[in-house]
Amino acid sequence: MGTPWAALVGGTTAVFSAIAAVGSWRAAHRANSTADAVGRIERDRWHAEQLPQFRVTIEERQGDRATLRVHLAGPLPLCRLDEIRVEVVQSDDMDYSPRLAGPPTPEQVAAQVWGPLRFVPGSDGADRNGQTVAPFALAVGKGRPFGLERTRSPLWWDGNDREARWRDKWLNLPMRLVLTCRREGYEPWTVPYALDVPEAPRVRFIG
User: Which pairing describes strands 136-139 and 80-89: parallel, antiparallel, or unpaired?
Assistant: First the structure.
């Protein structure tokens, strides 16, 4: 007995409808994926365009002390930063991890500022090691000063000339900073900054 023509047509129509539905779903999925990708690219582009622009200087250096000025120069559409964290990081690319048992410990190495200058501990909300200061907010066009001092040689260094050797170790090397910036509605920014350290008359440190 033959297949009724109406049933055959109905079955074929159902198959084509199913294929069309799958095709529409795939097209919609591709469109959504493309829209998500375009949106992500636009967000990344906007985030990059709003990268905070700083002018950071070392001023008024006399002896062991100096002033660090952090100025938020732009971009103008950013308007402000809700939080800025400034950290002094290692000025060279050496690995100072302990190689032998005994001093220094990993904790001592991490607490040492490996560079020419640090924040004055306890001043401007600086931590006890002089590595960071308390977070602060800035509007574009505004700035803040922070007290700096020359770093001291590690406690595990020996010799009466250890301070002179430590000072000479950092001659002509920059002070390196990392500024971590936050603004509501944005992903955080991380801004590295390297500063030439102006020379100051040598003063023998006694302590």
Answer: antiparallel
Q: How far is CA 88 from CA 51, 107, 132, 134, in A?
A: 20, 17, 6, 13
List, for residues 116-127, the tens digit of each pLDDT value.
999 999 999 999
Q: Phi and psi of 183, rounded to 5°?
A: -145, 130
Side-chain half-sphere CA neighbours of 71 within 13 A: 9
Tally Cβ neighbours within 10 Å of residue 165.
Answer: 11
The token pair at 145 is: 């000063």
The pLDDT of residue 103 is 78
Task: Judge if pTM exceeds 0.70.
Answer: yes
pLDDT computed for residue 111 by the predictor: 96
Identity of the residue numbered 16: F
